[in-house]
Design goal:
about 210 residues, alpha+beta, 4-stranded antiparallel sheet, 3 helices
Length: about 210
Amino acid sequence: YPSGNLAIIVVREKKRLICIVQEDKPNNAEIRAVFKSNGRSTCYYPNGAVWINMSIQGGQYLDQEGSRVRRWTWPNSIVSSGPHVPLSPIFISLNRHMGVRILGQDKITVSFLAMGQQAKFNVGTKVQVSDVSQLPPPTWLGEDELLLLAFRVRILWLFDRLRGCLNFPSNEQWDKIKPPAYLITQTLKILQLCTTSDISDELRSSVRAIVNA
């Protein structure tokens, strides 16, 4: 950066290359994006929330609350279920010097602009799988993220229940109040992720207990 702080780091991990984009800070700089040569990449909002997440199958674009804005699959990927959703070009600004443009699996560019000069880094890669059995689990969430999502939905359920209690003090009406449709949908999605994800039985049981409590 013009400040002298390190902006981009490229490291080798075994046979893979990893490109890391850092925030413009002298110490304890937050990571704004990580691009791996195995096809897995993630961009982050300034608050640390996942912005864009990509794998060898495709990717998804999230808002700062964690809700999915869009999702896509790469043209030559093999998906075990669901239709192929084409990618619409994406451009995001990580900060005032750094931007990311996504036009395809092998056409992902990190642009660095400072003091009237520009540098571009192609961090895209062409990774395919020829066997559906080699595909990663059909989920974009890790174990910690799955737990956090379950707790988030549970808290929303409790808030909705509390709102109903305040609006209808009589306990005879509580059981007649139906939860919002979006909460039911999110709960079903989490339960589906528990079924399809490669997680331990203990974690699967914990997540189900949280959302069904």
